[in-house]
Amino acid sequence: MSDKEIKIGDSVLVRAVGIDGLYTVDSISDGLYSISQGYSDVSARGHKTKSSYRHRMTLPLEKLRKP
What we know:
Layout: E1 11-14, E2 23-29, E3 32-42, E4 48-60, E5 64-65
Antiparallel strand pairs: 1-2, 1-5, 2-3, 3-4
């Protein structure tokens, strides 16, 4: 097994313009990887917030890489 092999639970980067940050691999099915990224930000009042919102995508292996 290669250290660059991507499996469930790994952190990955997306190879696409405008998509930043680490995503976590949630599942792998038929050569497509379901990934998600949690959302946290600073609210309008300046308070640090943690939301239950998760950005999710399903992409082929060619669009992913390990950090």
